Amino acid sequence: MTDAIGYERIGDIAVLKAQNPPVNALGYDVRVGLMEGIARAEDEGAKAVLIYGEGNTYFAGADIREFGQPPKSPGLPEVCDRIEASPLLVVSSMHGTALGGGLEVALSTHYRIAVPTARVGLPEVLLGILPGAGGTQRLPRVAGVEAALDLITTGRHIRADEALKLGIIDRIEDGAPREIGLAYTKELLDQNAPRRPVSEMEAPEPVDFDAVHDSVLKKGRGQISPATAVRAVQAATELPFAEGMKRERELFMELMNTDQRQGLIHAFFSERAVSKLPELKGVEPRRLAAIGVIGGGTMGAGIATAALLSGLTVTLLEMSPEAAEAAKGRIKGNLQGALKRGKIDQANFETLTEKSLTLATDYDALKDADLVIEAVFEEMDVKKKVFTQLDAVCKPGAVLATNTSYLDVNEIAAMTKRPQDVIGLHFFSPAHVMKLLEVVVADETAPDVVATGFALGKRLGKISVRAGVCDGFIGNRILSTYRTAADHMILDGASPYQIDKALEDFGFAMGPFAVADLAGLDIGWAVRKRKRAEGLDPRARDSAYADKLCEDGHFGQKTGKGYYDYAAGPRSRVPNPDVMPLIEAERAEQGITPREFTDEEIVRRYMAAMVNESAKVVGEGIARRPLDVDMTLLFGYGFPRYRGGPLKWADLEGLPGLLDDIRSWAKEDPYFWEPAPLLEKLVAEGRTFDDLNKEAAA
């Protein structure tokens, strides 16, 4: 027996204990141990086998350390088949989580008991694959096709009570997994309960699988693993079990060889690596218990909501009592959403809004805050005044944070006598929902202040990315460039609506012009005016048609019109008929003869601009690693997760071809399409962006 599986004999019951911390992942040693344990129990004349997990969980899933490695026998399908085929009665006792392969092991046992807090699920589609050890064949037999399709195509986890209703587990019992498992197994033996292999159950009734497949594919915006999983479940209804298993394996291997799987695996590992910075190793963050938020608009209220939900006390500062009460109303509205979703109960709601939240109109109220975040209007003069006052009232060691989207954090920090305490914390709206947090490190920001920014992000449940100081940091700087590429295509002949559709078909949640309407066209207008005031490079192409929309009071969804008309509601957008005449007039004024663009060309130019600017951001050190860019775009800008991020996409597409395209377009517009030095270097050396990620991790 391997050390990963413990073996003991209790009367007629052989007990197999998973002891592979921290999550009893189904690595090679665990798989071997399960095979050997079943064989030993049979050889010793046991009548039943109990399988449970030591520590915090049953088998939580595959061993991520084996991802990308050559498979080692026995594979999990072989293990599951061996468990199910045992002539002994095999029981699983589950606690913690049984996810992916963990649930597949449980389904290969004959009976399943769980503690009330246990959770189960098959999340493989989130990694670009499907359950490959019988999950698509066994789950429909115990839970029915509709429930199995829901769980497998969404990857969602369910609680023990729902799993019991669906027939995935047979009993819920409170107690230690070993004790409740032994009691249940003894009861089954006393009742002379029969073996109950799921593979021998009747095939479930089919549904309209073609319709389900098409619906799932549409919902996934092009992600293929959920739709492919539908076909695997279909096999469970149409084929004998052994043939269904073969079909599952064929579809599993098809997905293993896709770019989408590579993209999702990259996203999985990068999400875990992004906040692990060598510079913070051994650096303790400062105390975080009470925070201040300045400004109670949509952003400030969202930040305050996120902080309250994480257990922090919040003092919210506004200009007047009326504005403060309005901010409280926004926070209450946000928390009502958490109440409806069951994240908090009514008592929590009352505590958060009446005890944990304090309203103020005087900066002195912030004197005891451990960290203060300003979320005021995006104007440098306004922010400088705020920081001058914070410097005067905040206690020594308090972290002073700006939520600016574009502005120079060094210039803001210079307004204080403690620039080492100043940092940028760029939240994305709505801040209590959006996962991304850019931690913007200024020239003099102290290491423990950076650590505090990441500690806050972790506490708030954010994906925190380190960014350097430049106009727009990582995300908005890149956004500005790829949005400019879209604007250039508009001038040259494409329409906003063709561009949006092409990019939504590519997998973006929304196209750039629909996003602009959602964010508010006045935001982009303010940025354009600021940049023009600072002086545009004479080589830069510019246009004014979007300004005219704003001048007419059309700011997007909040005013009912922007690039689209929202008279029928935000989900029923139709092109605004005023837009194309403005664009055509702009083309005529600039002497441009419009040409046609294919959807493929739109995507290629848009993505090439994104990749080229991303390479500049990494090359300049604004982002430390390519994966920092990828996570920023995934979690803040609607980039399709199954493509891994723009720089993972670039690696998969091929950097030489992208550079060739950029150089060809540079002949027409050398200013905009200037190739990134890092991109040129990587191509010359035959390397990829992922090589840089690996170097950073070494």
Automatic annotation (TrEMBL):
Reaction catalysed by this enzyme: a (3S)-3-hydroxyacyl-CoA + NAD(+) = a 3-oxoacyl-CoA + NADH + H(+)
Protein's cellular compartments: Peroxisome
Family: In the N-terminal section; belongs to the enoyl-CoA hydratase/isomerase family.
GO-annotated molecular function: (3S)-3-hydroxyacyl-CoA dehydrogenase (NAD+) activity; enoyl-CoA hydratase activity; isomerase activity; NAD+ binding
Organism: Sedimentitalea arenosa
This protein's name: Enoyl-CoA hydratase/isomerase family protein
Alphabetical list of InterPro entries matching this protein: 3-OHacyl-CoA_DH_NAD-bd, 3HC_DH_C, 6-PGluconate_DH-like_C_sf, ClpP/crotonase-like_dom_sf, Enoyl-CoA_hyd/isom_CS, Enoyl-CoA_hydra/iso, NAD(P)-bd_dom_sf
3-hydroxyacyl-CoA dehydrogenase C-terminal domain boundaries: 472-566, 602-687
Keyword set, alphabetical order: Fatty acid metabolism, Isomerase, Lipid degradation, Lipid metabolism, Lyase, Multifunctional enzyme, NAD, Oxidoreductase, Peroxisome
Record GO biological process: fatty acid beta-oxidation
Classification via CDD domains: crotonase-like
Main location: other
